[in-house]
Amino acid sequence: MSENPNTVKFDAITGGKLVSGVIFDDEYNIVDKSEKILESVGNLRYVGETGVGKTTLVHFLSQKLESPLFETVLTRDTTRWDLLATDTINKGETAIREGIILQWLKSPKGGILYLDGFNYAEPNIVSLIESLADFRGSIWIPELKAEFKRTAKHYLVISYNPSDKSGYSGTFIENIATIRRFEGLVVKYLSKSKETKLLQRLTKKDYDWCRKFVELGDKTRILYKEGKLRTPLTTGNLLNYARLSKAGLSDDELIEVAESLFSETERGTFRSLWEETEKEKISETEA
């Protein structure tokens, strides 16, 4: 995960995004494994907590493979027809608005279809994705009286957050029939030493400051996984705090900003984590 000075253009032929300038710190060699899964299997599943860099990783893959990107975030309100096609009225006439899946399937260059938040997919969407992910690799749209089929260059990527239990509205978490269609990889936070160096490199803050806030972030992530905090401090949060520090905010003011992420009942816990972190002394050689 890292800050991205990336740019996005739209391909006039496919309608997909063409991304460039994406930076991804590949500490765990996940890019190479992802490429091999996409090119050999075609279906890739990422599992990882919020802020670990799943979306950044997909953008980096799109850039590296020179593959147009079609992406959307699923919610409980996302319908099958939102993803495929819906009727719209244009100047008094009915027209078809193509959904992200149909745009992807019609792309002559192929591309990466990225469905983020798959734990929010309703059962009818899960079944739709199954028909695209198995040997059929196609869908039939009655309204258009046409079948649309994947090619070997149409890559399918889904992701979900295992700690976000409230999002599992369907049966995906227990649905082996769906899971087995996707070869999966666990995306993890950077190690504390790597994350510290990343903060130093991108923000030019000194080692002690970066390490202190990385330690704080790590403590929140542990409690988040245990269900004791509703969110962790992500690398993105830490980058923001470094910028705010350079803009003149004190550490105490930064903690006040960070506290707003948590519910009122959690703020005392977060404040205790900060007080504990301030007392710790970690030398650069221990990192």
Keywords:
287 residues, alpha/beta, Rossmann fold, 2 domains, two-stranded antiparallel ribbon, 11 helices, elongated
Q: What features would you describe in this structure?
A:
This protein is of the alpha/beta class and 287 residues long. The protein has two domains: 7-186, 3-Layer(aba) Sandwich (Rossmann fold), CATH 3.40.50; 192-286, no CATH class. It has eleven helices and eleven strands. The protein has helices spanning 30-40, 54-65, 80-83, 100-106, 123-133, 176-179, 192-203, 207-225, 235-246, 251-259, 267-279, and strands spanning 7-10, 17-20, 43-47, 69-73, 85-90, 93-98, 111-116, 138-141, 146-149, 154-160, 183-186. A hairpin with a 2-residue loop joins strand 5 (85-90) and strand 6. Helix 7 (192-203) packs across helix 8 (207-225) and helix 7 packs parallel to helix 9 (235-246). It is elongated. The two termini are 19 Å apart.
